[in-house]
Amino acid sequence: MSELQLSKAPEDRAGISLSGAAGPADQAPVDPRAATSAAQRGFGAPAEPSLNVGVIGNCAYSALIDARGRAVWCCLPRFDGDPVFNALLHPGEEAGAWAIEIEDFASSKQWYEPNTAVLRTQLFDSAGQGIEITDFAPRFYSRSRYFRPLMMVRRVRPIAGAPRVRVALDPRFQWGASGPLEVTRGSNHIRYVGPDVTLRLNTDASISHILSRQPFVLSREYNFMFGVDETLLDGIADTARSFEQETIAYWRTWSKRLAIPFEYQDAVIRAAITLKLSLYEDTGAIVAAMTTSIPEAPGSQRNWDYRYCWLRDAFFVVRALNSLSEVGTMEDYLRWLGNVVIGSHGEHIQPLYGIGLERELPESMVENLAGYRGMGPVRVGNQAQEHFQHDVYGNIVLGAAQAFHDHRLLSRAGVAEFPHLEAVGEQAIRVYGTPDAGMWELRTRARVHTSSALMSWAACDRLAKIARALALPERAAYWHGHAARMKEEILAKSWCEERQAFAESFGGHELDASILLMVEVGLIDARDPRFISTVDAMEKSLCDGPYMRRYEAADDFGKPETAFNICTFWRIDALAKIGRKAEARQIFETMLAARNPLGLLSEDTHPVTGEMWGNFPQTYSMVGIINAAVRLSAPWDSCI
């Protein structure tokens, strides 16, 4: 944290211990949730878990805040860490959460401060009295670096009447298995000592009221700063106010520099900010989503941990932000990607890694968490790190290609870096046309997936273009030769005459939405009759009205029930390119309406209920919003 504002709390600080785990079993830590009194009866049960939540973050960590201002998910010390707030996956008395409640709650409204990641929530009681909560994670430039502490700032003020509020701060540890081993207090702070980390709340509100959950009249603004165990060097109110102003200024400046389309501007800005929040700036990794184990469909058991960096997903994030002229995220990601490539020594590259470049992400179950709406299991880790997914090599080359061509970059890639990327291309050649798990990570079936072969072609095609840019004609000819051979074979072997469509595998019969990427990466022209016929066939087989599923065949868990949002966006792009732009616009409007009230999307949408399912917020889905808006928007010069 910034030495201007914060310092490490000394180990021998003075403080009063309220609970301790070192004593006998009958002296267990006090749980303030056990306290009940007549004065607290006006505070009802928390809202049921849902994905109508907002995300705050600062490229170091993130938190999810529900529509009533309750922090229901937050992993520390990084995206893939222990969820100190886990209520999204564990409803009930033992949930980890942080609520700032209004007595006799009646209604709420929530929005982002425009063009920022600063979230406002207003709560009203039945008498019309109200409060406003401002939530954010500090992020701004200071001392030649980005200041992004592991700190959640909450500022609360009355906006009508004299409402009573209650603060309920309940951090949990070790995936919900443990509460604080000890809680200590000072004049303006509370420390929550966990088994592996100590967290600290600095506040100018009453420490006694927070510890006892005593309701109190909100007569003025109060500030809460919660994170790792570090003290403040300046006043709490002054620091919180300054952090808010600086954070708002940072995000507004960042948003102002985006090259956004004329139409759908607010949707694009919100999507872009959300993608930026998915960057773990310390290493340059980009997480696929900020949650684990939100099921893809109700009771489906399709519960996965997405808090890691998939090379495929990260490429699409970088590509979408590049389309808005935001290349900083690409520069950060290329640091991470370069380490992956060089560390592979020209051999097998996993489809995903930990955000700190961890290779092993063993998958396990958390038995003591019930799961989203009680729909377990809760998984930590992801078995897909063991898979062979051959599209990964194309995604690496595609993700890095712009660095060789973009003159805006301070550190452009060149002749020195090219051999490392060529080693990735050689691996793409070696695995081309061999069976793999495919981009949908099928666990019990291997085929020669068309999408994997497609990305091997893309690797060779882009390497040829890079070689030409570097004035290496022999290398350009080498890569062009491989690309030409692969293109001819892909178009021949993936074509299914009976279906009049390109199939999901060589010699296959089934359809898969990933085939739409043929046009996205440039293998085939969108007006080619075979591609148009493929789109028609997919609409009959994979679409539920405007929504599109990933594939039609049953997988390890049966047939998919929900629509996969990025597939719907691929369809939008394909329709626009083949000349059916009005239909594409109509479907895009449906997807915009499917977002939650704050403009965010998860992985999946139920075609009947319209409800969001799957991990959240899903970078793939937010990428789709940007790509569709850029594709469909009227040009600026048509209106100004």
TrEMBL record:
Occurrences of domain GH15-like (ranges): 264-629
Hydrolase listed as a keyword: yes
Documented EC number(s): 3.2.1.28
Top-rank taxon, per record: Bacteria
Record-annotated Trehalase-like N-terminal domain positions: 44-198
Entry's Gene Ontology BP terms: carbohydrate metabolic process
Keywords noted in UniProt: Glycosidase, Hydrolase
Region called Disordered, residue ranges: 1-41
A GO molecular-function descriptor: alpha,alpha-trehalase activity
Pfam families in UniProt: Glyco_hydro_15, TREH_N
PANTHER family: GLUCAN 1,4-ALPHA-GLUCOSIDASE (PTHR31616:SF0), TREHALASE (PTHR31616)
Descriptive protein name: Trehalase
Annotated organism of origin: Variovorax paradoxus
